[in-house]
């Protein structure tokens, strides 16, 4: 089981928080902070697994994370999950984001947290892995946004236009989170069929 | 219309949307909190509008704020509104918000049940999908129970997208509502072979999760998984299956052999490292392959290699031990995760032989380690390693003490208390070491200034606590007590933390007492007075302490010593009396001792001594652990003590295992060791090291010397042994030649340096022997430990949504013919299985035939669901009597019932008048020989059981032998039979009844969910030549299902206010008895308790075994009584009132 999925940037700002057990908001924030501090002090060339001790309630839990440019993707899992499998899953998730947002960058995650959630819901639900095939995930996510667009129809058009105008002046942040780099880290990285 | 919509959305487009909110927060970095609170106010306004789009937008923004740590549970109701929007766009927003903030405590969650059910059955697959996703996050036991059936239906949906989601959610449902597991399991199993790989993967996922907790229940699925493993190409599924087999193999050893082939194929063919790792992890015999992983330059593989090693270690410790070099190397790794893994491995690798060496290496690491976290980790590991299994691997405790002393040199460690605990533990439990320990501790005290140099931040000063205590408690071993006492009296001591000072003060007196005794015995009165003077001079500094404990102890002791001084001046010998203060020895207490103290009779540990405090105070303070409650890390003291026999047995088992293990490299005589056998070695001079010298040098590592000493000692020991063996060899040459040459040094050969007397822990007298107390009763997965192979029973079907009241509306009269029809079936069955027949006058005739008497049975079956007042049981009774049939009625009192009468009345707080004797026992059946009365009581332990007590009274003059009860179960009620007996077996009555005696039997009946059912019983009684059969039926009244439960008036008022109770009332005229008696009757016959009584009006309360609350208001008029009842179940109430009417009208 996956007990939490956290995405935060190099400064510890949360970009996506998904706990699969109910925790009070302040506890969630504390976990995010502590996880960030644990992950931050590790340099990029050591392993991607981290035993988090009592942070997640026992030695059965592990943090498995990947660092992409400005973002950390952290999965907290128990011993029923395969470590390398989860590592691959993070890669699948990020690549899916990349496809859905066309060259994903931190800004996409910042401004479209809801969409990221919807995509994640096609990968993991209730702490269990739902789908590992990227094409399937992308197809389902796109089908749903299409449905949303048809529902919006005429009435949603003006607000979309306004939103587009507002988005012109976004502060400049590197657009790419360099997904390419990460492939080096796990040799023989397998893609799930 | 369209124009209006556009206009509405133009108004709306100037509302802040999520992007605006994010942008706003980014632009207000300085006053973020203020800006957000502003936004929350806006959101609150937006939520008040009717436009669902505005609401959805607001909820979407709230979801973002939740991520930033804001509590949004106040908007739960609005979230539900958005969830029930018809448009997918909004629905999705609502469900997302719900999945982020709903939980079991959210009270509005019960409002969602119908909405979710609607969405689940929506024609749009994405509506269903979104509802399932949301449900996976916030499913509660109630939702799980109500929706289990709907979700189960979705498991066979036409769209694989829905199927796979439904399958996964089922796991969450199982966790919350374990009863659903058995009914849903067949379908889940089916999904393992679903044509869609996604659904298949989901099913594998769920079953793996289930099997991980209770593997034994899933063994029967092994062939299916085996097939999947060889056919599937999905790596994710394969990994899960392999993990599952990892859990199953220990339970079924044959599985292991079968798995080897496909696993090896996978290992060779796969290119996916993750899969390879899982295979290797499961096979765990490939230690050599693991070495390759660990030696790999990739850090991830190195980590996993070590992880797998630790698993192998548990089963094949020796094969891992050969890689000690590699693991020690990993300790130098720059990656902390890897270092910690390596440390973990070392813990399991130590043996008597290599302990010292490993610890020595670790000590070097401690010195090198920068960063306190890792160093602390090292420290705890060293202590763990040494103390594991009750110090099993320590052969030389002097060495261990000196290691502990060396560890005290660590600065800034948080684990001073750990070291202290070890010192205390060793000193107390190993008697032989006390002298040495005391000398070391005295030295520590002497150098306290080094340890406590920086008190504020230094956890290490905790060791002074242990040092002071050990020196005090075992002061008889102290050589220079004076010096130690002086060290403890130094002014510097007052800078130590309070609790340590307190121990100092207390132990000073112990020291003082022993010095005093020593001086008095040797007649040095001067010296004795000097020491008293010293105490009096120095103690006041503690009296001034700000710490209360220190102050109190110090002033108390100061007075005591002043008194001693007075006596000393009068030349009265006082030492004996002073030392008597500390007489007796403290022994360690076993960790389980407290639990094993048997609870004295009559003591109810769960009862409140005082009224419980209100909830609000305590709850917040409990430290909450995250994700799991079970954080009880078993401390090392809890490790069970292994006695020698057990050890020997395990050793034997291990050797056996190794012998059978083709991968295990067996030890062979090494040429080197034989070389050492040559006598020349004996002449190597043994270097004598003076122990006392290094000990006096503070802060110098001394443990090395113990290592050397120990090595020499072992060497000598071995030489001696070999000598002996040689002698033996000479004697037995030829005979046992081979046997001796096979000798290698194994760890068992190393004898401990000195006799290590580990004092066993004390247990309370008459402790109950049991080891079952380690399990955590709160484990949520325990509920899922369910046998899945048993066929499904009717009662286990998932609750289906239905209109409950429709059935209830039928009047009992219209029900009756129906019931009679039903009754025919059991009757036929009964005939078939009847074993006893009536057979008068003939002895030992066992021929079986169906007897006409069957026809006499009055089978009256009622559908309990509609009318629970008429539970009826039918019993048949057979009697055989050998001798003449004199009829003498003997009237026996029913002691049982009388006792019960008084008890119930006390419950009802009625105490002013003597009450007439009452018995709740009703006549069951009677014939000239026997009379049976019965009573039915709800079972407190189990909410679906009632206990039927039957009293037998023998009215004849002869013995009644071998009575038997035959009970026919009805649809809703069944008797709980002993295991192994079938429905048709009779239950023998476990006694014979002499003439004129009474005795009683209890039967336990289980009722199904809705409050009962009917079953017919049959009592057979046969003896010698005569068979008698007596039919009877049990009337299960409503009162049988009520349990007298006291209720306080405030709780009672709350219950009435809650509003979810049905109401009904009756009025009975012509009541003449006093109100007091009336209440007593209701209390007694209907199991109620009085909540409050005002004049001729009383409120009463009771609870059914299934938790329905029943409240009554009883009012007495001139000649009538009116009863108003409120109950959460209207059927129960109306039946209950009917019964009550009956009772009251007989008054």
From TrEMBL, chain A:
This protein's record includes keyword Ribosomal protein: no
Annotated compartments: Cytoplasmic vesicle membrane; Golgi apparatus
Chief location of this protein within or outside the cell: membrane
Protein name: Adaptor related protein complex 3 subunit sigma 2
Keywords: Cytoplasmic vesicle, Golgi apparatus, Membrane, Protein transport, Transport
Organism encoding this protein: Apteryx owenii
Topological category with respect to the lipid bilayer: Peripheral membrane protein
Domain AP complex mu/sigma subunit: 1-145
Family, per entry: Belongs to the adaptor complexes small subunit family.
Function statement: Part of the AP-3 complex, an adaptor-related complex which is not clathrin-associated. The complex is associated with the Golgi region as well as more peripheral structures. It facilitates the budding of vesicles from the Golgi membrane and may be directly involved in trafficking to lysosomes. In concert with the BLOC-1 complex, AP-3 is required to target cargos into vesicles assembled at cell bodies for delivery into neurites and nerve terminals.
Any one GO CC term of the record: cytoplasmic vesicle membrane
GO biological process, one term: intracellular protein transport
Cited InterPro entries: AP_complex_ssu (IPR016635), AP_mu_sigma_su (IPR022775), APS3 (IPR027155), Clathrin_sm-chain_CS (IPR000804), Longin-like_dom_sf (IPR011012)
UniProtKB/TrEMBL annotation, chain B:
Keyword field contains Phosphoprotein: yes
InterPro entries registered for this protein in UniProt: AP3_complex_dsu, AP3D_dom_metazoa, ARM-like, ARM-type_fold, Clathrin/coatomer_adapt-like_N, Mu_AP3
Disordered as annotated region, ranges: 604-678, 710-914
GO CC annotations on file: AP-3 adaptor complex; axon cytoplasm; endosome membrane; Golgi membrane; presynaptic endosome; terminal bouton
SUPFAM superfamilies: ARM repeat (SSF48371)
Subcellular location: Cytoplasm; Golgi apparatus membrane
SMART domains recorded: BLVR
Membrane topology: Peripheral membrane protein
Compositional bias of kind Basic residues: 723-741, 822-835, 867-878, 886-895
Cleavable signal peptide: none
Protein's GO biological process: anterograde synaptic vesicle transport; Golgi to vacuole transport; neurotransmitter receptor transport, postsynaptic endosome to lysosome; protein targeting to vacuole; synaptic vesicle budding from endosome; synaptic vesicle membrane organization
Biased composition (Basic and acidic residues): 621-657, 710-722, 777-821, 836-866
Domain of life: Eukaryota
Biased composition (Acidic residues): 759-776
Keyword annotations of the record: Acetylation, Coiled coil, Cytoplasm, Golgi apparatus, Membrane, Phosphoprotein, Protein transport, Repeat, Transport
Domain called AP-3 complex subunit delta: residue spans: 642-789
Role according to the record: Part of the AP-3 complex, an adaptor-related complex which is not clathrin-associated. The complex is associated with the Golgi region as well as more peripheral structures. It facilitates the budding of vesicles from the Golgi membrane and may be directly involved in trafficking to lysosomes. Involved in process of CD8+ T-cell and NK cell degranulation. In concert with the BLOC-1 complex, AP-3 is required to target cargos into vesicles assembled at cell bodies for delivery into neurites and nerve terminals.
Family per record: Belongs to the adaptor complexes large subunit family.
Name of the protein: AP-3 complex subunit delta-1
Organism: Apteryx owenii
């Amino acid at each position: 089981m996956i007990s939490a999925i956290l995405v935060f940037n190099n400064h510890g700002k949360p970009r996506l928080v998904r706990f699969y057990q109910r925790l009070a908001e302040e506890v969630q924030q504390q976990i995010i902070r502590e996880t960030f501090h644990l992950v931050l002090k590790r340099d990029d060339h050591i392993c991607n697994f981290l035993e988090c001790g009592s942070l997640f309630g026992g030695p059965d839990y592990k943090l498995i994370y990947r660092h992409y440019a400005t973002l950390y993707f952290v999965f907290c899992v128990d011993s029923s999950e395969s470590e390398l499998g989860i590592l691959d899953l993070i890669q699948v998730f990020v690549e899916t984001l990349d496809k859905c947002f066309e060259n994903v960058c931190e800004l996409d995650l910042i401004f479209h947290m809801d969409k990221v959630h919807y995509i994640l819901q096609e990968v993991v639900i209730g702490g269990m892995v739902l789908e590992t095939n990227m094409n399937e995930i992308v197809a389902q996510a796109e089908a749903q946004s299409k449905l949303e667009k048809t529902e919006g129809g005429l009435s949603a058009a003006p607000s979309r236009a306004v939103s587009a105008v507002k988005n012109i002046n976004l502060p400049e942040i590197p657009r790419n989170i360099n997904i390419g780099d990460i492939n080096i880290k796990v040799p023989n990285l397998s893609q799930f069929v | 219309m369209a124009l209006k919509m556009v206009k509405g959305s133009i108004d709306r487009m100037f509302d802040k949307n999520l992007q605006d909110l994010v942008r706003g927060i980014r632009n207000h970095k300085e006053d973020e909190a203020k800006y957000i609170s502003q936004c929350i106010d806006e959101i609150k306004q937006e939520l008040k509008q009717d436009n669902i789009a505005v609401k959805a937008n607001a909820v979407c923004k709230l979801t973002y704020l939740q991520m930033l740590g804001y509590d949004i549970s106040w908007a739960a109701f609005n979230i539900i509104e958005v969830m029930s929007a018809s448009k997918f766009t909004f629905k999705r927003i609502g469900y997302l918000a719900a999945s982020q903030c709903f939980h079991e405590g959210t009270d509005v969650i019960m409002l969602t049940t119908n909405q979710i059910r609607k969405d689940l059955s929506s024609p749009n697959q994405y509506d269903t999908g979104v509802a399932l996703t949301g449900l996976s996050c916030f499913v509660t036991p109630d939702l799980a129970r109500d929706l289990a059936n709907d979700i189960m239906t979705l498991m066979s949906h036409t769209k694989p997208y829905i199927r796979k989601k439904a399958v996964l959610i089922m796991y969450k449902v199982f966790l919350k509502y374990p009863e659903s597991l058995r009914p849903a399991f067949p379908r889940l199993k089916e999904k393992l072979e679903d044509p869609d790989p996604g659904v298949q993967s989901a099913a594998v996922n769920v079953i793996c999760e289930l099997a991980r907790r209770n593997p034994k229940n899933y063994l029967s699925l092994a062939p299916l998984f085996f097939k999947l493993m060889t056919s599937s190409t999905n790596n994710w599924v394969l990994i899960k299956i392999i993990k599952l087999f990892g859990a199953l193999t220990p339970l079924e050893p044959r599985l292991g052999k079968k798995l080897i082939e496909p696993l090896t194929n996978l290992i060779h063919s796969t290119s996916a490292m993750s899969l390879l790792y899982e295979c290797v992890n499961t096979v765990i015999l490939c230690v050599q392959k693991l070495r390759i992983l660990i030696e790999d330059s990739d850090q991830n593989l190195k980590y996993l290699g070590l992880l797998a090693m630790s698993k192998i270690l548990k089963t094949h410790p020796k094969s891992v031990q050969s890689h000690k070099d590699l693991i020690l190397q990993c300790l130098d790794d720059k990656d902390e995760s890897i270092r910690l893994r390596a440390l973990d491995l070392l813990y399991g690798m130590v043996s008597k032989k290599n302990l010292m060496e490993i610890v020595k290496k670790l000590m070097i690491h401690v010195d090198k380690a920068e960063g306190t976290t890792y160093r602390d980790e090292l420290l705890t590991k060293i202590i763990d390693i040494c103390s594991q299994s009750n110090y099993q691997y320590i052969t030389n405790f002097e060495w261990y003490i000196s290691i502990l002393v060396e560890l005290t040199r660590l600065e800034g460690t948080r684990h001073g208390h750990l070291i202290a605990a070890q010192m205390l533990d060793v000193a107390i439990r190993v008697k032989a070491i006390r002298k040495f320990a005391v000398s070391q501790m005295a030295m520590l005290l002497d150098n306290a200034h080094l340890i406590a140099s920086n008190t504020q931040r230094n956890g290490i000063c905790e060791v002074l606590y242990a040092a002071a205590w050990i020196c005090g408690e075992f002061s008889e071993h102290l050589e220079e007590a004076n010096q130690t006492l002086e060290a403890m009296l130094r002014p510097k001591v007052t800078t130590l933390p309070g609790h340590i000072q307190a121990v100092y003060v207390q132990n000073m007196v112990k020291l003082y007492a022993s010095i005093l005794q020593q001086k008095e015995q040797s007649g040095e009165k001067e010296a004795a007075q000097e020491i008293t003077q010293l105490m009096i001079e120095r103690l006041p500094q503690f009296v001034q302490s700000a710490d209360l404990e220190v102050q109190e102890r110090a002033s108390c002791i100061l007075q005591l010593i002043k008194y001693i001084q007075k006596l000393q001046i009068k030349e009265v010998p006082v030492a004996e009396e002073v030392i008597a203060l500390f007489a007796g020895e403290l022994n360690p207490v076993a960790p389980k001792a407290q639990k094993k103290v048997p609870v004295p009779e009559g003591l109810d540990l769960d009862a409140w001594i005082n009224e419980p405090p209100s909830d609000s105070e305590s709850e917040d303070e409990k430290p909450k652990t995250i994700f799991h409650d079970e954080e009880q890390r078993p401390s090392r003291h809890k490790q069970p003590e292994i006695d020698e026999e057990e050890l020997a047995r395990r050793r034997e088992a291990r050797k056996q295992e190794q012998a059978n293990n083709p991968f295990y490299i067996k030890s062979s005589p090494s040429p080197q060791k034989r070389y050492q056998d040559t006598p020349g070695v004996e002449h190597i001079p043994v270097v004598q090291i003076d122990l006392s010298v290094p000990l006096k040098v503070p802060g110098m590592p001394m443990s090395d010397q113990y290592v050397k000493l120990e090595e020499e000692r072992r060497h000598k020991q071995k030489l001696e042994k070999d000598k002996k063996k040689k002698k033996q060899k000479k004697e037995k040459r030829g005979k046992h030649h081979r046997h001796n040459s096979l000798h290698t040094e194994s760890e068992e050969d190393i004898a401990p340096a000195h006799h290590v007397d580990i004092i066993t822990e004390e247990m309370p007298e008459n402790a109950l022997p049991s080891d079952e107390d380690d399990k955590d009763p709160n484990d949520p997965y325990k509920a899922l430990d369910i046998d899945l192979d048993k066929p499904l029973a009717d009662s286990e079907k998932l609750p289906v949504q239905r209109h409950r009241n429709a059935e209830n509306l039928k009047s009992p009269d219209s029900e009756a013919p129906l019931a009679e029809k039903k009754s025919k079936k059991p009757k036929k069955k009964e005939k078939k299985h009847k074993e006893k027949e009536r057979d008068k006058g003939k002895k030992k005739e066992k021929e079986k035939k169906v007897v006409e008497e069957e026809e006499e049975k009055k089978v009256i079956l009622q559908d309990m669901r509609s009318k629970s007042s008429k539970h009826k049981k039918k019993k048949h009774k057979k009697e055989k009597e050998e001798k003449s049939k004199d009829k003498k009625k003997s009237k026996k009192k029913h002691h049982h019932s009388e006792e019960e009468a008084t008890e119930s009345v006390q419950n009802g707080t009625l105490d002013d008048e003597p009450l007439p004797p009452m018995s709740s026992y009703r006549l069951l059946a009677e014939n000239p020989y026997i009379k049976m009365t019965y009573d039915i009581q709800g079972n407190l332990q189990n909410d679906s059981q009632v206990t039927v007590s039957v009293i037998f009274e023998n009215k004849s003059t002869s013995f009644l032998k071998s009575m038997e009860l035959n009970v026919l179960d009805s649809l809703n009620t069944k008797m709980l039979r002993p295991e192994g007996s079938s429905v048709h077996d009779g239950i023998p009555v476990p006694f014979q009844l002499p003439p004129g005696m009474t005795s009683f039997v209890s039967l336990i009946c289980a009722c199904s969910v809705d409050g009962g059912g009917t079953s017919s019983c049959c009592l057979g009684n046969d003896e010698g030549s005569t068979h008698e059969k007596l039919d009877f039926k049990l009337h299960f009244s409503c009162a049988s299902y009520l349990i007298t439960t006291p209720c306080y008036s405030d709780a009672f008022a709350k219950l009435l206010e809650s509003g979810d109770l049905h109401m009904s009332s009756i009025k009975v005229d012509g009541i003449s008895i006093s109100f007091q008696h009336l209440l007593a009757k209701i209390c007694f016959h209907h199991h109620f308790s009085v909540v409050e009584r005002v004049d001729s009006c009383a409120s009463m309360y009771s609870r059914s075994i299934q938790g329905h609350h029943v409240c009554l208001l009883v009012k007495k008029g001139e000649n009538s009584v009116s009863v108003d009842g409120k109950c959460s179940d209207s059927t129960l109430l109306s039946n209950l009132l009917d019964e009550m009417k009956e009772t009251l009208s007989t008054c």
